[in-house]
Design a protein that fits this description.
Order of helices and strands: EEEHHHHEHEHEHEHEHEHHHEEEEHE
CATH topology of the largest domain: TIM Barrel
CATH superfamily of the largest domain: Enolase-like C-terminal domain
CATH architecture of the largest domain: Alpha-Beta Barrel
Radius of gyration: 20 Å
Number of domains: 2
Distance between the termini: 17 Å
Number of helices: 13
CATH class of the largest domain: Alpha Beta
Number of strands: 14
Strand content: 15-25%
Shape: globular
């Protein structure tokens, strides 16, 4: 009977890849969420790997649940990130074992391609600069939807510079025109009052959705903003507790829910949020802020889950640390990404990444 024999991590810059190998030689690749990846690596090998080694890979969801129960006193972000790295590696191994893309193991193809919205990750541009650079990518890849940044991360009503929010909202519409679906992300930057005022302005300019208007911890305040505004409000990327997502959906705190595969603990748990969202009649748009393997995981999830029916996230930036990780790279054509066809995640890790990474092994 196949057992998990070895769990290895490969750390380079902000990227931590995870390779799981079974006793019969089957391998699968996963990745943790970026940032502070070295800390995640320590948690993975001390708290997570021992609970997976010697177990059957097909029991992946049960193993994830067992690990969280075992470490119930430490249910924080780093534990969930570490679990996510092993979870995603196991799903790749299972896809390869069955000769199927992961999305088929998650329920099959709910759609034949995935429409993407171009997602800006920066606030350093002027409104005119932002609109110009986004317009270039629209022309190149055919995006039909884009998202820009307003406010400042957890900024308590502070902008990157005074007036940037109120300036960028009309400029994006004026430059990009009425045929592009526009959205805005505040990253928790506003109080209730200013969130409502900015939301009304977004409504006036026909924006599609308003992301994280309040700090993500304030779901009651977010629910108030959501109920007050007509524009759909989205959130959930920072959360990793399924109970928190259940509360968020039950109280209609958001109109669009955004679990992050890397933050929540892998595909096994992100799928549960998508299923809860489907039952609640709320669209699910997994958060995915960079071009690492997390983009691949999110694509498979979006292909399989009926609730992932809207535009999905595609970063407008490609920082150097996200490059040279894997092939074949996903491509946007006419604003959409095609269905993966190869077993597992359908990717091959770049050998140069492995040569340049530091390695840690649990066996």
């Amino acid at each position: 009977m196949t057992r998990i024999d070895r769990i290895e991590t490969f750390l380079r810059d902000q990227v931590l890849l995870v390779r799981v190998t079974t006793d019969d030689g089957l391998q699968g690749w996963g990745q943790t969420a970026p940032y502070e990846a070295a800390l995640t690596e320590q948690v993975l090998h001390t708290m997570v790997a021992p609970l997976f080694l010697g177990r059957e890979p097909w029991d992946v969801e049960a193993l994830v649940n067992r690990t969280l129960r075992t470490h119930y006193k430490f249910l924080g972000g780093f534990l969930h990130r570490a679990i996510g790295g092993v979870d995603t590696a196991l799903w790749d191994a299972l896809g390869k074992a069955s000769g199927q893309p992961v999305y088929r193991l998650l329920g099959g193809a709910a759609r034949t391609s995935v429409p993407m919205y171009l997602s800006s990750m920066i606030r350093t541009t002027t409104p005119e600069e932002e609109a110009a650079r986004i317009a270039e990518q629209i022309a190149d890849k055919g995006f039909r939807a884009v998202k820009t940044r307003v406010g400042l991360e957890m900024g308590a009503d502070v902008d990157k510079w005074p007036g940037r929010t109120e300036a960028i909202i009309p400029v994006m519409r004026d430059v990009l025109g009425d045929d592009i679906e526009l959205s805005a992300d505040a990253n928790g930057g506003f109080s209730i009052g200013r969130a409502v005022r900015v939301g009304r302005m977004l409504e006036d300019y026909g924006y599609f959705h308003f992301e994280e208007p309040l700090p993500y911890t304030d779901i009651e305040g977010t629910a108030h903003v959501t109920a007050t505004l007509d524009i759909p409000v989205s959130g959930g990327e920072q959360d990793y507790s399924l109970s928190q997502f259940r509360r968020m959906l039950a109280m209609r705190a958001v109109d669009i829910v955004q679990p992050d595969v890397g933050y929540i603990g892998g595909v096994s748990r992100a799928r549960k949020v998508a299923i809860m969202a489907e039952a609640a009649g709320i669209p699910c748009t997994p958060h995915c802020a960079n071009h690492s393997l997390l983009q691949v995981f999110s694509l498979h999830l979006a292909v399989a889950m009926p609730s992932c029916s809207q535009f999905q996230e595609w970063s407008a930036e490609k920082p150097s640390w996200t490059q040279g990780i894997y092939a074949s790279l996903l491509e946007v054509v006419d604003g959409e990404v095609a269905l993966p066809t190869e077993p597992g995640w359908g990717i091959e890790i770049d050998p140069e990444f492995l040569r340049s990474a530091t390695v840690m092994t649990s066996a």
